[in-house]
Amino acid sequence: MKMKELMRLQGICKVFDKGLDELVCLDDINLTIQEGEYVCILGPSGCGKSTLLKIIGGIEKPTLGSIVMDEEVFEDGIPKSHLKDFGFVFQQHNLLEWRTVQKNLRLNLEIFRLKGSVWEKRVEEMLEIVGLQDYANIYPHELSGGMKQRTGIARALVHDPKVLIMDQPFGALDAITRNMLSYEMLDIWKKTQKTMIMVTNSVEEALLVSSRILVMNKKGEFISKIVNDVPLKARDEKIAYNDRYNELRKKLDDIVHEIQE
Amino acid sequence: MKGNKKWLNIVSPVILLIVILVCWELYVAVSGIDARILPAPHVILSKLGERFMRDLSGDFLYTIQVILIGYCISIPSGILLAALCSQSKLVTKAITPVLILMVVIPMLTLVPILQLWYGYVMKVRIIVVICQAVPIICLNTLRGFTKVETAKRELFRSMGAGRFKTFVKLIFPNALPQVFVGLKLGCIFSTIAAMSADLAASNEGLGSRISVYSGMLMTDMAYGTIIVVALIGIVLFMIVAYIEKKVVIWIK
Ligand SMILES: Nc1ncnc2c1ncn2[C@@H]1O[C@H](COP(=O)(O)OP(=O)(O)O)[C@@H](O)[C@H]1O
Ligand SMILES: [Mg+2]
Asked: Which of A259, B107, B108, B143 keeps 20 to 30 A from A176, CA to CA?
C-alpha cells in the first residue's frame, strides 16, 4: 500500500473549564494519519478518546495545537470548509426519528448543499452497501439496533467524505450483531477505500478490522502504536486460529491490562 | 390485540360517562332534590335541544369565533415567541418564570381595563384568549426547543450547519411532541379564557348566558350551556390530538 499523509495532529491539547478548576483532557497529542488507513483507538473510559475524535472531526476545537491537512495548517480546529471531508458515526445511532432511513441520509446532502442525480444515486448506493435498500422508507423506530447503526454508517458515508470517524459504533449492540457489523465494517473499508478512525473497547474487534492500533492511557497519552499486520486474507471467521492475530492479541491484552491498574 | 385496545380506548370513557349520568339521574330521582339546584340529566338535555337554536345559537357562534380567532392567533405567536427566546439561554431563563406567572393569572382581569380602551367589542375577548393561550403554548414549546440531545447537536455541528438550518431541521421537528402538548393545553385554555371573558364582559357569549340563566334560576339551561362549552373544548382538543397523531408518528 502506498502511503500518503492525510492529516497530521501537532501538539493537540484540550482543556475543559470546570468552574474554578481546569480539566486537562488531552495533553500534547501528535498523530499522523495516512490515506486509506484503518486506525483503531483503545483506551480506558474517560481518557479522552471521544474528545480526540471530536477534534479530528471538527465538532470541537483544540485548546492548543494545530491540524495539518492538504499542506494547510489549521490552528483553530477544522474549518467549516473542510467538514465535508469527515463522516461521523456515533455510539447511539443518533438518527433523526422524524425522518425515514432515506431522509436521514439526505440530511447530510441538504446541509452540505449537495444536489443532483449523482447524489440521489449515492443515497441508494450507500443503503445498498449496508444492506438496507429495502428499508429506505422506514422510520428509525421500526428498525432493530443493528439496522439503526447501519443507517448511521450509511449516513456518515453519503456525502463521500475522505475520513470516517467512529466513536464506539457497536458499543450499544448485542454481541452477535456487534460481531456481524465488524465484519461488515471490514468489507466497507475494502470496498470504499476510505480512511477509518474508530474508537473501540474490544481488542478482538480492533485486530479484525484495523491496520493500526493506538492505545491511550488514563492521562490521554498514546502509550503504544501497533501496526496490525494480520493479513487481510486471514480476517474471517477463522481469524482466531491465525498465529499473528494471537500474538498481537496477547500483546495488546497485556498493555490494556497494564493501563487499567 | 392492537385493534382491541383501540376499541377499549373509546368505549371505556363512554361507559364511565354513562355510569356517572345514571348515578346522577338516580340521585335526583331518589333524593327529590329541587330541580333549580340540580336538574336531572335528561331534563337538561331535552331543554337544551328544545331551546338551543332559538336562545343559544347566536351566543354559540359569537363565543366560537372568539375561541377560534384567539387560538389561531395564539399558535404562531406562542411558537414564534418561543423560537426567539430559545436563541439565548439567558432570555430563556428570564422569561420562563414570567410565562408561568402568566399561565396562572386568570386573564379575565384584563376585561375592564381593555373595555376602557376599546369599548364593548369582540376584540377585547379575543385579546383575553390570546393572553391566556400564548403563555401556555410558548412555555411548552420553549421546553421542547431547549431540550435537544447533545449527540444530535454534535451531528449538526460536525456538518457545520448554521443556526437557521439547525433550527429548521433539528430543533423544531425535535420539539414537535412538546409543541403539541402546548397546543392541546392551548385549546383548553382558549375555551376557558373565552368563557371567563364572557362572564366578565357580560351581554353576549355563552359565558354570560350561564350567569344570566343562573340568575333567572333556569338551572337546567345553565347546565346545558356548560355542556355546550365543554363540547367545544373537547372537539377542539380532539382535532388537535388527531393532527398530532398524523404528524408525530415516531412516538407511540
Ligand atoms: N464538554 C465537556 N465539558 C467538560 N468536560 C468534558 C467535556 N467532554 C468531555 N469532558 C471530560 O473529558 C474527559 C474525557 O472525556 P471523553 O473524551 O468523553 O472520554 P472517553 O471517550 O475516552 O471515555 C472526561 O473526564 C470528561 O468528563
Ligand atoms: Mg467516549
From this structure: A259
